[in-house]
Write a structure and sequence with these properties.
- It is built from eight helices and five strands.
- It has 159 residues and is of the alpha+beta class.
- It folds into two domains: 2-94, Arc Repressor Mutant, subunit A (Orthogonal Bundle), CATH 1.10.10; 100-158, Ferric-uptake regulator, C-terminal dimerisarion domain (Dna Ligase, domain 1), CATH 3.30.1490.
- 16% of the residues are buried.
- The structure holds zinc ion (2 copies).
- One zinc ion binds next to helix 8.
Length: 159
């Protein structure tokens, strides 16, 4: 499990069906058809969807899919280290990209856009942080208004 988990964390790329089955087998979990569908959908999503948004996409293809299955499968995938949970404002969203990155979050439409920031990543954290506890990860959340929402604002101003 350790090695597989490490490999996955480093890459964050979509696993082959065979590798996905190995991860589920090792955890003693059953890889059902619906779980595969949900895995594929979240790995292909670039927009940090919520469980509800993913459910809306999936139910067109799989009408028997329930929102509860989507919720539970996303929680399982997160537990297995295959995807990440992102919380912005009061919303829980999910993303497949496990590589180090930051988020630009639109205050209006709640869109999350990935931001690469290597200069930040190479900074040394203040020493005092060690007094607070052990750092596992650090990420910047940049809040603002996205381009689309800015354009809409401009439009309403001129009409
Ligand atoms: Zn926006
Ligand atoms: Zn992201």
């Amino acid at each position: 499990m350790e090695n597989d988990q490490e490999k996955i964390h480093k890459t964050g790329t979509k696993l082959s069906l065979e590798d996905l089955r190995k991860v589920f087998d090792k955890a003693g979990l059953r890889l059902t058809h619906q779980r595969i569908m949900i895995y594929n959908a979240i790995m292909e999503a670039k927009d940090h969807p919520s469980a509800e948004a993913l459910y809306e996409r999936l139910k067109k293809e799989v009408p028997t899919m329930s929102l509860d299955t989507v919720y539970r499968t996303l929680a399982t995938l997160e537990y297995l280290g295959l995807i990440k949970r992102v919380q912005v404002f009061d919303y829980i969203r999910f993303e497949p990209d496990l590589s180090r990155h930051h988020h630009f979050v639109c205050k209006i439409c709640k869109k999350i856009i990935d931001v690469k920031w290597p200069q930040f990543d190479s900074l040394t954290l203040p020493k005092e942080i060690n007094l607070l506890g052990k750092v596992l990860d650090h990420q910047v959340e940049i809040r603002g208004i996205c381009k689309e929402c800015l354009c809409k604002k401009e439009e309403t101003k001129t009409t």
